[in-house]
Structures are given as C-alpha cells and as structure tokens.
Amino acid sequence: MKQIILQGVSVEQLNELIQEGVRENLKELIDSSKPQQEKFLTRQEAADLLRISLPTLTDYVKRGIITANRISNRVLFKRSDIDQSLKQIEV
Fold this sequence. Notes:
Blueprint: H1 11-33, E1 40-41, H2 43-50, H3 54-63, E2 69-71, E3 74-78, H4 79-90
Antiparallel strand pairs: 1-3, 2-3
C-alpha cells in the first residue's frame, strides 16, 4: 500500500482540497445522469454525416439499415439511431 506524506499542508487546506474534489466528481456524475435531448437530423444532415448521397440514404432506409422517422411531412433521423446502425455495420 502506498503512503502519501503531506508536508506544508494544513488540515484545513487538505479538507478543502478533498471537498473540492468530491464536488467536482458529484457535478460530473449529476451532469452525465441527466437525460440528453434527442437530436434529429434532416435527410441532408444524415447523408452528410454518413458521407453518402441522398439516394444511397433512401436505399439504406428501404433495406432497413437505418431507421427513418416521419414527422408530419418530413423525414428525420435520430442521431442515436444512426450511431447504432453504424455499430451494427462494424460488427
């Protein structure tokens, strides 16, 4: 087991350093646990992200490789769905 020897640090300073470290870690934990707002992409944004053409994107949707969402008269893609599709292709 390692031993740490602190010289020149008062008990109060050590206490403040520990509390600050705990606060930072708690803040990161709270921020990471907040539900993230789902980002929707247009057809063009999705095609640009994947570096493919719009006809290829349409073909991928028809083949079931990528899931499209129809909202009113628009076709939108969830960023998480595109990321999941890419993970499936890599495997």
